[in-house]
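Fold Annotation — chain and its backbone
Encoding — discrete vocabulary of local shapes
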Amino acid sequence: MITCPAVPSQPGDWRRQLAAAIRDPAELLGVLELDPGLLPAARRAAARFPLLVPRAYAARMRRGDPADPLLRQVLPLEAELEDRAGYVSDPVGDLAAAVAPGVLSKYDGRVLLIASGTCAINCRYCFRREYPYAEQRAAADDWRTALAAIRRDPGCQEVILSGGDPLILTERRLAVLGEALRTVEHVRRLRLHTRLPVVLPARIDDPLLAWLGGLHLPTVMVLHVNHPREIDRPVRDALWRLRAAGVTLLNQSVLLRGVNDDRDTLCGLSEALFDAGVLPYYLHLLDPVRGTAHFDVPANRAVELVEQAAARLPGYLVPRLVRERPGAAAKLPVGGCADNVTPVAEGLAVPL
């Protein structure tokens, strides 16, 4: 039996924390006692893709360490301004998959809704850093257009809320969607892709838990954690509260150079996730969005790292190494030999 930790609930506190998030590169460098010489490049990169990091997340970073793996995920760098062949604005084919504003149909049986254009943190490797949220957002008309698209697809059994981050929405907006989905007979599951429980654990408050507990659909929450130090005590407590509310918790990570591209970090991440009630799910190769080439880990190295982790961990703690290709029928597992790594045949692909 899962028991809920005795964590005081402060509804609305997460909004105050989000409003107080660090948005100025100079402030981030000052808080972490980093070299001011990093500031000019950080300002140039932030002009293209803004800095945003909650103070609760910044507090987990090591002071004075410009290579801290949590800092590396959020600090704007000059490398983001370099143009690299193959790095594009829409690397996973989101726009081509749109069947209505913010409604993406990529895989059989599932529809993804861009529920919000806002996050609580701007990850520098984000594959939607150039996504046109102003025009492509499913919640723009209180879900009417999105729900109409779902009703037209009787094969859709699962609705996936993504963004941005769907948990940026208020419980009132989420409740409107939940009630609407109740009327769609062929929808059997709700999935949320979110980073908020990790970067802003105060979001897991009583109103949100009440909404989740009242849903008539089985609910899966796919988190995004890349490094074991992202899981501190407040995050662990928040995740166990979600488990106690009946939410299935999975994690997907991105393999990032300088963040988690070593065996010990990947193994430590899987162990930390399981201790918090979360099952490792996917380890993604970097989606080649413009400005992120400095994060890339070659596929050969990725395969080697997963093999090393598999030799140390039980099988259920080894995430599946995958890449996403525009137009593919599913996420594609990555495998191969030492000098020629390619996705396996589409027919063997693991579904999203």
